[in-house]
Every structure is written in C-alpha cells, then in structure tokens.
Write a structure and sequence with these properties.
The structure holds two protein chains of two kinds. Chain A is an alpha/beta fold. Chain A is built from eight helices and 14 strands. In chain A, α3 packs across α4 and α6 crosses α7. Chain B is of the alpha/beta class. A seven-stranded parallel β-sheet of chain B has the order 3-2-1-4-5-7-12, with helices on both faces. In chain B, strands 6-15 form a two-stranded parallel sheet. A two-stranded parallel ribbon of chain B has the order 8-11. The N and C termini of chain B lie far apart (44 Å). The chains are: A alpha/beta, B alpha/beta. At the A-B interface, α6 and α7 of A face α9 and α10 of B.
C-alpha cells in the first residue's frame, strides 16, 4: 500500500497496564467494588490493575510514550507536537517527585503540568506541548483528533505524540456504572504520510444534558445504546459504508454484554469484534489502544481492512473513529 | 322501563369515564357502583362522584345528566355475594338488569395467586350474584385483548383455546375469567378492550397503568430500546372509545354468549410510527428532548432485547428492573404481531368504531401525565399537586 502525503495515520500505538492487580475477590474484600464478584464476572471482568509506589503513573506515562515512539520508529527530536490526555483533572498535574521551592498557599502546584514534565523527561525538545481533557473515556480520541487537525493545518509538523494517562486516587472505588476500572496509560503517534491505521473518518455526539454523571447515572446507561448506535451509523453514512463493510471492531474494556448488544444494534456481525486480551477492566482513556496495539502485534488482519473504534466518555460524548489498516 | 346497571371496579381506570357515559344514557335510570367496604368510605364516595362530574365536564357532555342516579353500595368482589349486606344484595338482585364486571387486578407484577384471586375468583363471585338477579339482561365481562397471549395473526371475536403461552400471569387470569363467564349459562357479553391510553379530548387518565409508566420512563430517557419484529403494531384506543362502546352495549340485550373486541384492529399503529410520534411530541415539549439531547429508543429484535434484559438482571439494577417491569406489560406483545377482529364490536356500534386521532391522543396523554407527574390526583385536589 502506498501512502499519500496528505494521509494521516497512527504510526505507533502502545498501551501499558501496571503490573499490580487485584482480582474480584480482593477488590470486594477491599471494599473497592459494590457489585458482587459473580455479577462482575458475568460482565467479563476479572481484575483491576492499580498503580502504586513501585510503579507510579509517571513511570507508566513514560513507558507508554516510549513504546509508541519505538513502534513508530521515532527519535525524541522528531516529535513535533506532544498532546497529553487525561480524563480526570488530577492526572493533568505531575505527581513525580516532591514539590520544591517556595509556594505560598500551594498555588504554584497547580501549574506542575504533566505534559511539560513528560516533554522534559523524554527530551522532546522540538515538540509543542498541549493537553486535552474533560471528555471522560473519549479524551484520548479528542487528543488524536487535535493531533490530526494540527498535522493537516500546519504542513511543517510531521509527527504528534499523544499520551493518555488515567489513574484513580489511591483507595478510590474501582466500580463505575457496572464497570471495573483499571489504571493505565497509552501512547499513539499520529503521523503525516502514514498508511498504517490511516484515518478515514471520525464522528462524535456530545450531550451536555448528561454533564453530571453522579446525578444522572441511570439516564446515561439508558442513553448509551441509542446514542452509540447513532454515532456509529452517522460515521458509516458519512463514509458511504454499510455495517458489514467494517472488518474489525476494536472493543473497549467495558462490560462485555454491552458490546454484544451494541453490535447487534448497529448490525455489525459479532465475529468482527476484537478483544484479544485477557480482561483488564476499563481503563478510562486507554482501552481502545491496548486492544489496537495487540491487534497490530498479532498481524492477523489484512492490509486495507476497515477498523472501527468506539468509546463513550462522561461529559457525555460518544465517539467513533474509522481507520484503514 | 326502569333499568339498573351494577358496576364493579368503578374506581379503576375505566370507572369514572364509564359512569359519566352511563349517566348520559336514556335507557338507564340507575347506576349502582360496588365500592370496596372499608375506612374512609364517605370520602371515597365523594371522590368518585367528583371524578365523574369532572369526567362529564371534560367529555363536554351536552345532554343533561343526573348524578343522583349514581348510587354507591359497599361490597367486595373477593367475597361471596359480592360482600353485599343481605338486604342490599336482595334489593339489587331484584333490580339489576345489567351487571358490568370491570373489577380486576391489572398490575402485572402481582403474584399469579393474587391475580387469580381477584380476576378469576372475583368473576366467579360476580357471576354467582348475576344468577340471583331476576331481571338480568346481560352480564358484561370487561376483559382484555391480552387473552390472546402469544398467538399471532388475526384474533377472532370468539372464545379461543388456551394459547401456547401467555406473556404474563395477568393474561392467563383474564383468559380463565372469560372461560368461567362463557360457561355460566347466562346472557354474557365479553368485551375485550385494547390498551386504553387516555381521554381523547384532554388526555385524562384516571389511573395510570403500565403503558403510562413506560411513557414516564421514556420521557426521562430511561428506555434505551424497544423489542419488535418488522410488522409490530401497537393496538391502542382512547378510553372514550371503550366507555362509549360499553355504555351502548349496556342498552343492547344479548342472547347467549357474545365476544366483542373493542380495538383499533386494522388501524393499529405501526410501532415505528408510535415511537416517532411520541418522540416528535417530546422534542416539541419536554426539556432534554427539545434540545435533541435525549435519543429516541432503538427498536431491536427479540434476541437483542433479551441480552439487555439479562444484562439488567445480572447487574441487579433496581431502577432498570422497574423500567423493564413496566415495559414488560406490552413490550413482549410486540414480538407476537396480531390483528384483532372488530366485526362484532362494529356491528353493535352500528359502524366503524369511533377511533380517535391517535397522534393527538398520545400527545395529550403525555402532557396530562407530565402535568400530574404521573401520579394519581384525587378529584378534589387542585391540579398541579
């Protein structure tokens, strides 16, 4: 397959899970989940991965970024843009190392940006740095979208590194709307003239009506399916495709029956769903890219295959992304 | 000739509109209402009378009608001789020409045993009392089109053998009640009513039922999907149609057994149209919908809906369990497409049934339900409580 200079694709993809994990019984004993282990198991969950002092979020972010750059064959000086993506506000601030200097009232602590720290830690000296947030589990999708837009708009930029990191506070509940939540990070390099995972289209529906997830959890659960169906159908229509034209659907780590239902709703055959990893839970920003990395590693899909990614994020936004492998 | 009608279940969904209609009738001089004996009897009588007056006003009845023709008697369909006091029972047995048995438990979540007790045994008691009525012209059993269970195709106006399956215990209990009535050796008219959505003029609903609960969940955006097959239709009628038909039937004697279906029949609404109509109305009137933030439910096949049901069951989610419980009253029926024949009902009516403009009625019922917060308001309370 030949690449066109105007093509934008994902040249590097990586997902990282912390090695430490707790199974459902341990999570229940720790009081970190509220549903029974049997119910969570029926939803396909087995464990939650957790960062700790031995493997802090900063290490995980570095590993994800390095792995993505390695996958893309990039050196640090070749990264033109760095986009940090975190759904939760505290993950936009760097927790690496103790606070230093004088900071009356702690105001300066709020400017210890994770994105800037990562640029420095990786020697991405040529990169312009920014961050995206406030899109829940779709935040990494927003990062990719911003990266692609920059590459298309500014011809001097070739490669954008997007790094998504989300870690729940220590001791925080690990169950959200019947999903077991893991800590994780991911890195994706978006490159101009890249024919792998070529960007074909993107569709998003944002519904601020559901802005407060604590107040409208049931409404969100109910809205999930019809809106997900709507956003995928919108993307297919924009691309002139039918459901059967999708070769692979990259799963997320949310509860498994929801994927079975969604595929039936949209009319995509269930054998197109890829979730070729043991259950790692739902990682907020990184699910799709953990699976996409594995899909690429296995090398079992043909060039030219159409790959669909879908995810939902609090806020609320429903996003679907279509790539050509 | 002075004619008396005795009604059971008059405080139910059909009660006040039916009473208002009967009190309009030239051929009926007295309407006796069996109200359950118990505390606050006077207040309940007062409320019923107020509801009937409200109904008559809402219906825009022009002809004079007299509330003094309405008489309430204490009783209980769950008891022998309808729980009437001996003297009262004897007086009614002497006077009643038409017994309309409308009392029923229509809560689908009720246990099969309780449904049987009210719907089957209650009918047995009503039939037993009817046998005592010396001038009885007919016993009207208010039944439901749901007795067809999981049958598909054309449903005739006749007694049917037991279907392969019923969707719920309520359907079975009503089917059993029909068999009892048919075997009673009395002049019996079984009227199978379709789902009565509400009043066609004001959207008034006296007692919210499962379909209204489902509308309520829909409005909150809590109904993610509706199961259906390609030709699923929803048979709905305005309450006015049902009560006007029953009132007319009360004036027409019956010989032996007659089964009539008061339903939309061929005019039943394609499910897609109904959902589209309700959603379009909500998008004009309700917060969240007007801004396009709430999506219409997806219409899905049975297997997909079962996956969703299973998922809800596995989660143990109480709210969604309630949503599914309300939806369970008619969602499953959408998977068994059928058309109710209405030939006999039309013959008695004297032409096509006076079906309302369903789009208008659905909108009015939604507005009415929202104005009442989908709770029953006592007739004497001010609106908006």
């Amino acid at each position: 397959m030949t690449s066109h200079p105007e093509d934008v694709g994902l040249s590097g993809v990586a997902g990282i899970l912390p090695p430490r994990h707790q199974d459902l019984t341990e999570l229940t004993a720790s009081g970190l989940v509220s549903s029974s282990p049997a119910a969570l198991s029926a939803f396909g969950f087995e464990r939650a991965h957790l960062c700790d002092a031995t493997y802090p979020p900063s290490e995980m972010a570095l590993d994800a970024a390095r792995a993505a750059m390695s996958d893309a064959g990039l050196q640090p000086h070749e990264v033109d843009v760095l986009v940090w993506a975190s759904a939760r506000p505290e993950n936009h601030l760097c927790a690496a190392g103790p606070a230093t200097g004088t900071d009356a009232g702690g105001v300066m602590q709020g400017f210890r940006y994770s994105s800037a720290w990562l640029q420095n830690a990786l020697d991405l000296h040529n990169a312009e740095v920014m961050a995206v947030g406030q899109q829940g589990c779709t935040t990494m999708f927003a990062a990719l979208r911003v990266a692609r837009a920059i590459l298309l708009a500014e011809p001097g930029r070739e490669h954008a590194l997007c790094v998504g990191v989300d870690v729940l506070p220590a001791g925080a509940p690990r169950e959200i709307l019947y999903n077991v939540v893991s800590d994780a990070a991911c890195g994706v390099v978006v490159s101009r003239g890249c024919a792998t995972e070529k960007w074909l289209g993107y569709s998003q529906l944002s519904r601020g009506y559901y802005w407060d997830p604590a107040a409208c959890g049931p409404e969100i659960v109910a809205a999930y399916f019809p809106t997900a169906k709507g956003v995928i159908e919108q993307l297919l229509a924009e691309q002139g495709l039918r459901p059967g034209d999708i070769d692979v659907v990259v799963a997320t780590g949310v509860n498994r029956p929801s994927w079975d239902i969604l595929l039936r709703l949209v009319g995509i055959p269930e054998d197109r769903l890829f979730r070729g990893l043991p259950s790692f839970g739902h990682t907020i920003t990184s699910d799709s890219f953990l699976y996409l990395e594995e899909l690429r590693r296995l090398g079992q899909i043909e060039r030219g295959s159409r790959v669909l990614l879908f995810t939902y994020g609090f806020g609320s936004s429903w996003c679907s992304l279509l790539l050509e492998h | 000739m002075s004619r008396t009608v005795l009604i059971t279940g008059a405080s139910g969904a059909l009660g006040p509109p039916l009473l208002a209609e009967l009190l309009q009738s030239d051929g009926i001089d007295r309407v006796a209402v069996l109200l359950r004996r118990g505390p606050r009897w006077d207040r309940r009588v007062e409320e019923l009378r107020a509801s009937v007056a409200q109904m008559a006003a809402d219906a825009g009845h022009q002809r004079p009608w007299r509330l003094d023709r309405l008489m309430c008697v204490a009783g209980d369909v769950g008891r022998r001789d309808l729980g009437l006091e001996v003297r009262e029972g004897a007086r009614l047995a002497k006077d009643v020409h038409v017994l309309i048995h409308a009392a029923a438990n229509t809560r689908f979540s009720t246990s099969a045993r309780d449904l049987h007790n009210v719907n089957v045994e209650g009918t047995r008691h009503a039939l037993a009392f009817a046998r005592l009525c010396r001038v009885l012209e007919q016993f009207v059993l208010v039944s439901t089109t749901c007795v067809a269970g999981t049958r598909t195709g054309v449903i005739a106006e006749r007694l049917e053998d037991e279907p392969d399956a019923f969707v719920n215990a309520y359907e079975r209990s009503k089917w059993e009640a029909e068999r009892l009535a048919a075997a009673a050796d009395l002049p019996v008219r079984i009227v199978r009513l379709s789902t009565c959505i509400g009043g066609e003029r004001t959207g008034y609903v006296h007692r919210f039922g499962a379909i209204h609960q489902s509308l309520r969940w829909l409005i909150r955006g809590l109904v993610p999907m509706v199961p259906a097959v390609d030709d699923s239709k929803v048979d709905l009628i305005a309450t006015d149609v049902a009560v006007r038909w029953i009132a007319r039937a009360a004036e027409r004697a019956v010989d032996g057994l007659e089964v009539c279906q008061v339903a939309a029949g061929q005019q039943a609404i394609p499910l897609h149209d109904l959902v589209e109509c309700a959603v379009a109305h909500l998008r004009r009137t309700r917060p969240g919908w007007t801004s396009g933030q709430i999506e219409a439910p997806a219409i899905v096949d049975a297997a997909t809906f079962r996956l969703f049901e299973r998922s809800v069951a596995q989660s143990g989610d109480v709210l969604f369990a309630r949503v599914l419980e309300a939806a369970g009253s008619f969602f499953p029926a959408l998977l068994y497409p059928k058309v109710y024949q209405t030939i006999r009902a039309e013959a008695l009516w004297g032409g096509p049934l006076p079906l309302s403009d369903w789009r208008s009625t659905v909108g009015k019922v939604i507005d009415f339900g929202c104005s009442r917060q989908w709770r029953r308001r006592r007739a004497m309370e001010p609106a908006g409580v």
